[in-house]
Structure formats: structure tokens, C-alpha cells
Amino acid sequence: MPGFRTLDTLEARGKRVLLRADLNVPMQDGKVSDLTRLERLSSTIRELAEKGAKVIVLSHFDRPKGKRVPEMSLKPVAEALGRVLGRPVGFAADCIGAPAEKAVAGMQPGDVLVLENTRFHAGEERNEPALADAIARLGDAYVNDAFSAAHRAHATTEALAHRLPPYAGRLMQAELEALEQALGNPARPVAAIVGGSKVGTKLDLLGNLVAQVNHLVIGGAMANTFLAARGVAVGRSLQEAELHDTAREIEAKAKAAGCAILLPVDAVVARDLRAGAPSETVTIDAVPDDAMILDVGPLTTASVLDRLAACRTLVWNGPLGAFETPPFDVATVRVAKGVAWLTKAGTLLSVAGGGDTVAALRHAGVAEDLTYVSAAGGAFLEWMEGKTLPGVAALAV
Questions:
Q1: Is 378 a catalytic residue?
Q2: Catalytic residue among 75, 87, 198, 337
Q3: Cβ atoms within 10 A of the Cβ of 47, count?
């Protein structure tokens, strides 16, 4: 991973600092319904403000497709950010031009200002130089604290970093350092847990991981595709018959790389997916024709935990079963609690990410107990796939 500047080297006093954040937060009835993302961002904002910077926050919100959509304004988000920070936060009705210039000109050291949704301009998603130039005129330095948007080459995530001295904010720094520890230069043995419903969406991920890790645990419905490719009858379970050859290719690549793939040896099955549905545990070669695999069984769970106990590093993306619907959350919860215990014991460095994964860890009550949990979805997945993230590459020094 290339080197990057952090806030430790930014002489912030009196400077106009353009802070690329991710204010794309959940909204309900015109109000922010979950403050988690704003709370995580607050440490970087507070540090810059306390150092005397004029903090100018840039962000996209939703998908206005280059047009001004009032329901996608960042104004209510700016108000919520002010409540999180416990201080006034200004708002400018545009991210360029007279409204932005006037608001920035009126700032004092320590002030915080949110500019309007950058995606109200079509040039944002096109990474247009003219838009980046116009925004750059508002600042003296650029700080990117939006890892979750780093997989996109947009004007405020990529082009802007080439127009002003670029720095990583504290969130970005923590994310990059955790990812480097997990796959860049990890303590071995390394394990990966990959779950979810479809192999097709994670082909690049699986292909990269088998060359990087020592143990690959495959769970969720994607395990059914691998089992079926081995000739195992999986009943009515969700699986991708057209990807059986691909699954066999991934297994062959893993064998050549010395990566052990762990698939379920038992499963929890039911006739329909609903809370409290009658279920039974069967060995993987005894799945009834009219049943669906909805979770891995206790033997598989124990095997996963035994494997992890012998590892030093874990990356996790995707649940092991249909965790949103009890009783099919048991394996995911048990493994999550086991990972948390190993992490607290100091024997395992654990990094997890992706929306379903974060939700599953919260459901298990251990989201705060892993080494690092990434809130980024697409960016985290692309990093695990071994791809270069434009927003990260632009910070390189």
C-alpha cells in the first residue's frame, strides 16, 4: 500500500481545509435516522477545528443524477452534524460559485461548514476537471475521510486530490492501516470468511482470496453452489447451477495455492424461510429434496471456530446463514462471538466489512469487539478483490 500523509503533518491553523466526508446517511421524514456515520466522522472534524482550521465538508447524498433535487439536500444532515458536534455548523446552498464562496469567506478558524450535495453537479460523477478546479479554489488543503466512496473516481474523491495537498483523515487512516494489517502484510495463518447469497457477485473476491489466505470458509447460499458443484444434492436451496464450473475452477486454484476451503458438513434446513419455521439439522449429504439449507450446522460451526483458533488474522465478508430470520442466525452469532473472544484474547486480528456483515455483527452484539469493522460496502469489497481504489491511490505520496 502506498504511503500517505495524515493529519499529524497538516499545519491546519488558519487554513481552509476541504474535507471529503460521507454524509450519505439514512433519512426518514426529512430527518437523519441513524447518526453512526456522523459520529464516526466527528473525530476528524473536531481535530481540525481545534487546530484552528476552517473545516469545509464536501459530500454526495443519494443519486440526484446531476440535478438539484430538494429531497436530497444536505441541509438537514448539516443540522444533525451540528447536534453531534455540539457546535454550530454552517451550510452553503451550493458546493461551488457565489453561495459557496460567500460562506467560505465568512468563516473564522475553528468554524465548520457543509457544502451542498456535490452530485447536484453532473461533473462530480464524471470526475470533470472544471468542477474539481472550482471546488479547489475554496480550499488550501484536501483531506479525504470517506473510504466508503474511495472506489469511485469522482471529482471530490480523485481529481481534487491532485489540485491541493492531499491528506487522509482519521477514519481513512484507520481503515487503510487495518486493511494493510489484514491482507497487505498479515500475521499468518490468515483465514477469510465469505458468505452471502451469490457466487456471481463475489467471483473476483474469491479468486483473489484463494491466493492470499491459508483458510477460506464459504458460507451462506454461495456455499450451496460449491456443494452442488461437488455433486451434493442441496434440495430446494438457493444456488447458481450455471456457475458450477466456476466453483470447481476456484477450488482448483485454491488447491494449487495451498488454500484450504472449508464448506459445510452439516446444515440447518427448513421447508420455508420465515421466523420460527420448523427446522432440522442434517448432515450435508442428507438434505431432503423439498428442503432448503438456511444455516450451517453445529459441526460446521465448531470446525470453523477450531480453524480460527489456530489463525492469527481474519477477514470477514458475509454471514454464514439467513441470520435476519431466527433460528437461522445461530451459526453466524456463535462464530461472531467466538471471533470477538479470540480478538479480545489477543490471538486474532479481525477485520470485517460490508453491510450484511456489519448488521450480523451488531445482531450478535459484538460489532465493537473486533479489531476493525468497516462501514464501507463497495469499497471494502473492491479492496478485498485486490483492486486499486482511485480515492486511495490519489492520496499516495
A1: yes
A2: 198
A3: 16
Which one of the listed residues 106, 200, 258, 355 is annotated catalytic?
355
This prediction's pTM: 0.90
pLDDT higher than threshold 60 for residue 1: no
The chain-wide mean pLDDT, for the chain, equals 95
**SS3 string of 144-206?**
ECCHHHCCCCCCCCCHHHHCCCEEECHHHHHHHHHHHHHHHCCCCCEEEEECCCCCHHHHHHH
Of residues 37, 51, 152, 202, which has the active-site annotation?
Answer: 37
2: confidence class by pLDDT, cuts 50, 70, 90: low
41 Cβ neighbours under 8 A, 6+ residues apart:
21, 22, 23, 81, 145, 171
Measured distance CA(298)–CA(319) in Å, rounded: 15
Domains (ranges, CATH) in the chain?
7-170 (3.40.50.1260), 186-384 (3.40.50.1260)
Q: Could you confirm whether 344 is annotated as catalytic?
A: no
- How big is the chain, counted in residues? 397
Contact indicator for 74, 114 with CB cutoff of 8 Å: yes
Active site residue 37: yes
